[in-house]
Amino acid sequence: MNRFTLHPLEICNDCLGRLLQRRTRIALGLFLALCLNLAIAPALYAATDNFSRGNAYALGLLGLVVVGLAAYLTTVILKPEKF
Question: In this structure, are residues 45 and 51 in contact, taking their beta carbons and an 8 Å threshold?
């Protein structure tokens, strides 16, 4: 299939199919977590006076890890047969 002969919806469907692969999902999840950390860390840095910038980014990343683990454990508790 030539990419130039595909319709826009078929191109989007092809891209989504690639994103649903396991390896790509992990990379996409890490990328989104880092982007979300870029939004959280400056707000945390501005809200407190005694944190350095590195500490603010570390705490933002730690918060994202905690939320991710909570979501994972909730999924494991509610649907244990998948694991």
Answer: yes
